[in-house]
Amino acid sequence: MIKLDGVSVGYNQKAVVQNVNLEAGPGQMLALVGPNGSGKSTLIKAMTKVADLLSGRISVDDRDITTIRPNELARLVATVPQTPVLPGTFTAFEMVLMGRTPHLGLLRYEGGQDVATAWQAMEATRTDSFAQRRVSELSGGEKQRLVIARALTQQPRAILLDEPTANLDINHQVGILNLVKSLCSQHSLTVIVALHDLNLAAQYCDRMVMLNGGGVYAKGTPSDILTAANIKDVYGAEVCVYPHPVNRLPTTIITAGGNGS
Amino acid sequence: MARTVSEALSEPVARYPAGIGIRRRSRVYSMLLLGALLIVVILFATGVGSVPIPIATAFEVMVSQLPFVNITPSVPDVPGGTLTLESLRMIILDIRLPRIILAGLVGAALAVAGATYQGLFRNPLADPYLLGVASGAGLGATVAMLIPFTLTWVAFGAVPLFAFIGGVGAVTVVYLLGRVGKTMPTTTLILAGVALGSFLASITSYLMTIAGEQLQGLVFWLLGGLHFTKWSEVWVVLPAVLAGFVIIWIHARPLNVMQLDEEQAQQLGINVERVKLILLGAATLTTSAAICFTGLIGFVGIIVPHAVRLVWGPDHRFLLPLSMLVGAIFLILADTLARTLVSPAGIPVGGITAFCGAPFFLYLLRKRKGLAFF
Questions:
Q1: CATH 1.10.3470.10 fits B5-367, yes or no
Q2: Which of A158, B70, B305, B352 would you call most buried, defined as having the most Cβ atoms within 10 angstroms of its Cβ?
Q3: Does the predicted interface ipTM exceed a cut of 0.95?
Q4: How close does chain B come to A217, measured CA to CA in Å?
Q5: B258-286: per-residue pLDDT in tens?
Q6: Which of B6, B278, B265 has its CA nearest to residue A101?
Q7: How far apart (Å, rounded) are the C-alpha atoms in residues B120 and A192?
């Protein structure tokens, strides 16, 4: 569904990440991990043409995204940004309804079907209970679910999420990722998610791409990637990696007093 | 078989609770109501003046001008003499009505341009003059008044022409200075606008010190007001304001989406830079055309959109037309006060708009605090 071939991206002709090859297909959840500044967000932005593609080819459904018009791309790929600005005077429902934008022409108003689509997306993300409240009155977790509802309202084939669990407590972290995971398998969505938390990435994602030093450091299943040696090499942090007691997935535990510089 | 989001969310049987939607009907009713109020206000304003004329008579005079209407207006008794039908027609049709219509157009234009700028820059302090239209037009008008020769080929005199060119020119320079590559970062644009505005205003100030006899006319223009309006001025402003409004209204939905940050707007399929350029151009042309005959009328462009947003919500598809109607009504009423309070000289309408508008706005702000903008 989404494929990157030898991709270099950055801003103002300066590359942030270079020579990235990756592929994500329907029903798959791919995690992008790596230290701060390794280019996770930039890669995600490049897939929606917000960051500049310097070389290589990004394709969606085997079509080069440089040839896809903005509103058509928005019907294929939706994004949940890291810290979205949400104007507080709109109601939660109005915010979700904005997801219909790529499906409507300049002059068409949202019809009953558009309203129904937005409403179902709100039900799926359990945001329907506060549909009529103003965005400024919502909590961080509610806003995050709202942005996911808006992304679903675009009826995309793929969703890109940039740190969807940042600033959320442990219960909401699990809630958001459970939601994304179930949407991914129910609707064969292609999901690419940038995550800081390696344990969440291991629990929820089928495959991982670890970025470091302006390029791809390693690719594979969580068990392949998350080793104490890799993490020491990429993050410079001393950790222990154990199998999770319930599902045997790799679990990273920090060691206090380790070399964290 | 898993269903895609597209299939799963498109069930025709889908039901949603009543009351969910874009509240289109109630807002359309509000527009119709305000449209009717605008007509009433125009009628009322034509009756008010140094020669008071009953609204019914004013209505008769205006309707008698329509094609296929055959009525003869009754001439009312006025204090201190009789009024002929001829002079009645002249007072209403040639003196008062063009001024009222121009006031309405200017109020509508400033309110719509203000709403556009506020939306475009996501900034509650934005007004139509943010990027230097006012200082550019002010300098243009000043230069026009001070040049020692008259431009005989300009039908309206040099002042409106120079003011228009000054306004559009200032924003063009700001755009060229504030552009970064192919993009137009709003903060850079605002800073460039503020800087160029101060620069132009300082030139205007200097010119004022050497203006001599022209100073009074200059101050009057800079304060803004409608004085001896002719129909020909209305026919110049009307198409500019209408065209600007249509272009802006067409882009109301992109403007809504751009209330999110530009990154999200782009990810929702909006061509952000193109929409910004179109809206900026349309709002600038509308503002420049509106103020070139009347001078710098302040306050309408910043307060009317806020008031409308407080009452009817932030959706630009309704905010823009509602602002237009409220702006027109507001400036007609303010100008009626301006020309009758200190009769016959009149006081600048800009003073009236602030004096009467600000307390009402503060009342709204207190009553619905927290909803003002973001």
A1: yes
A2: B305
A3: no
A4: 28
A5: 999 889 999 999 999 999 999 999 999 99
A6: B265
A7: 31
